[in-house]
Each structure stands twice: as structure tokens, then as C-alpha cells.
TrEMBL record:
One of the Pfam families matching this protein, by short name: NTP_transferase
Family annotation (Gene3D superfamilies): Spore Coat Polysaccharide Biosynthesis Protein SpsA, Chain A
Keyword hit for Nucleotidyltransferase: yes
Name used for this protein in its record: Nucleotidyltransferase family protein
Species this protein is from: Halomonas citrativorans
InterPro entries per UniProt: GlmU-like, MurU, NTP_transferase_dom, Nucleotide-diphossugar_trans
Alphabetically ordered keywords of this record: Nucleotidyltransferase, Transferase
SUPFAM superfamilies the UniProt entry points to: Nucleotide-diphospho-sugar transferases (SSF53448)
Boundaries of every Nucleotidyl transferase domain copy: 2-114
Keyword Nucleotidyltransferase: yes
Length: 219
């Protein structure tokens, strides 16, 4: 299974830290955030990684290279301007191929990666859901007997980690668009599975949460 790391965002919530440094290269526990992702993917046995880049793209590419230093093979998907999650994946599909792939948001920290066997035949996505953090108390989706639903009494937050089948994006335009509406449509068709992860997870979206993660890892 290949993996894709989403790293093309502008990092606006991270300013002023990202005024001169792209978010994937922000240091945490002595190494860039994206390197933690690459090392975790390598430990999971994933060798081929596609990374989309836009803001300060050359800075990221120069720092990371072809991935050999981390035991993986990296291919870069360039976006002249950020294409949002859906558009970024759509542009990278020629590199990803026709099989399901692991999708990881570049600005999260998660101690868990799902296996490719978690995506069952006929499903279009398998999502990792976590307990709602203080900054997102209402969550995103519900989970019932392994199926992810748009509505439900007990709601969880999407962790930014999932397995995606390329068919989820079939027929979509080659332009900027969000992934969430496609996922919700697939949920309504009972084509999205999921699981709850109760371990350590952080949306590293602000300087304060980056500092909190640094403190956690230093302990």
C-alpha cells in the first residue's frame, strides 16, 4: 500500500511560525514534523510515499529529498496553488495508482496507522476517529458498528488518517475541492467504515498545540 501525506497548506493558523518556514518542516522533538510521519510509515512497512506541496515547496523538497534517508521512496506532487484535500489527491492519483492508499494529514500527530485490510470490499474509505478535542467539541462523524455516519448521538473527530480508494474521487474535476462532501456522500451510501482510536493524537494546527506536543514528547 502506498501512502500520501498532505503537505500543501499555507499554514495560516501557525503564523508567525510559518512566515518563513513551511508547516511540515516545523521542528518537534528535535526533527521536522513531516519526518515523524515518514519514520512512522517506514516502521509500518510502507515504502512508497507521495507528498503534495505548494507553499514553499522547494524548501520542503530540499530538506527531505527522495526519502532514502528515512527508508522510503518519495514522489512529489506539485501544486501551483493549494488545491484543498480533494483536489490535491486528485492531482496525485497518477502517482498513487488504482489501489487503496493510506492518507495522512501532514499537520496531525497520531500514534496509530490502519492496515490496508481495514478497507473492506465495496467500501470507499476507512476513517480513524478520535475523542473530540477541546477546540472541536462537537466532532465530525458518528460511529455505529464499524460504519461511519454523518449523524449520531455519539460523535467523534476525524483524525486526519484514513485509507482511501481512488474510486471515491471518480469523475471529480482537476481543480481545488474539499474531500469532506465526497466522504459524506459515501457515508450516506454505507460505503465508509471506521474505528475509534483512544491513544495519543494531536491536531498540530496552532503554535500552542505544537508547543504542547513538544512538551508531551519531551517527557
Amino acid at each position: 500500500m502506498k501512502a500520501m501525506i498532505l503537505a500543501a497548506g499555507l499554514g495560516k493558523r501557525m503564523r508567525p511560525l510559518t512566515d518563513h518556514c513551511p508547516k511540515p518542516l516545523l521542528p518537534v522533538a528535535g526533527k521536522p514534523l513531516i519526518v515523524h510521519h515518514l519514520e512512522r510509515l517506514q516502521r509500518a512497512g510502507i515504502e512508497d510515499v507521495i507528498i503534495n506541496v505548494s507553499y514553499r515547496a522547494e524548501q520542503i523538497i530540499q530538506a527531505i529529498g527522495d526519502g532514502r534517508a528515512y527508508g522510503v521512496n518519495i514522489q512529489w506532487s506539485h501544486e501551483a496553488t493549494p488545491l484543498e484535500t480533494g483536489g490535491g489527491i486528485q492531482k496525485a492519483l497518477p502517482l498513487l495508482g488504482e489501489e487503496p492508499f493510506l492518507l495522512v494529514n501532514g499537520d496531525v500527530w497520531c500514534d496509530y496507522l490502519p492496515a490496508n485490510t481495514q478497507l473492506k470490499r465495496g467500501d470507499l474509505a476507512h476513517l480513524i476517529l478520535v475523542n473530540n478535542p477541546d477546540h472541536h467539541p462537537k466532532g465530525d462523524f458518528a460511529l455505529d458498528k464499524g460504519r461511519v455516519l454523518t449523524q449520531g448521538a455519539q460523535r467523534y473527530t476525524y483524525a486526519g488518517v484514513s485509507i482511501i480508494h481512488p474510486r471515491l474521487l471518480a469523475g471529480q474535476p482537476t481543480e481545488a475541492f474539499a474531500l469532506a462532501p465526497l466522504l459524506k456522500n459515501a457515508m450516506n451510501e454505507q460505503q465508509v467504515s471506521g474505528e475509534h482510536f483512544a491513544g495519543h493524537w494531536v491536531d498540530v494546527g496552532t503554535p500552542e498545540r505544537l508547543a504542547a506536543l513538544e512538551q508531551f514528547l519531551s517527557q
